[in-house]
Amino acid sequence: MRRFLLVAMMLGAVTGAQAADMPDFLRGSLPASSAPTRNWDGWYAGGQVGQTWINTDFGGSVASLTNSIFRNTTLQGPTSQFNLLGRVNAQSSGFGAFVGRNYQFDDAVVGVEANYTYWSGLTTTTSGSLGPIQVAQPNLVLPAGATAADGVTLNGSASLKLKDEITFRGRAGWATGDFLPYAFGGLAVGRMDVSRTVTSSVNRTINFADGTSTTFALPQFAQTATDAKTDAYVAAWTAGLGLEYMLWNCVFVRGEWEYVKFSPVKNTAVTQNSVRAAIGYKF
What we know:
disordered N terminus, 62% strand, 3 helices, 10 strands, mainly beta
């Protein structure tokens, strides 16, 4: 028994010595990181430049105008479905500033931020014509065997200029060394100039049973309707991704992509994509 205990103690000593020579990760622990995570907690501010693309859908822009022209007639419903104008894209460079507050929990970083961007040339314009499109008029009192249809012609145009916007974001990121990748989402308000106009004319054609026909204008529908609004404030939601890198001390650089979808304004829908580069300072 004493010999057995002696052999066991010798084996234990040899095993301990070998374990001491093993790398840390084989002994159940990892070596300390050579690049400790930066402290992102606190207030920060900075400036930015970028490029923005907008897509403006003018498909329904003049619907309320034609509804007014053809109000309470058989033409109101059909003309409200006419696709007179289409989608238009535009792009412009912009610049702005941001301020925010980070809260750091170990490597997790969450925060809130207000971000402002101004553009000088972010404008979309379009024009179009339709017609004459024949709309049947089955309820008219006509001679036996006769039919009638109204030929509707529309000419229209519209424009939208996005001047500037402010976003209010919530952020969530993961700090790793000098890098902070993050995602964000929140609300936005854009300032826009919007205008639209439409001109209409209607010719009625009556086809008689003997094969003859007659066409004449309906002067009550020869109208032009225009509507415009300057400095319209339009709500939106926003989301995107970004990456910050701490250059030294409290100075950092940023790159990000942002998507914004606005509520319709004057029957016009606008979406926006932006890429930005920025430099900031953490206080």
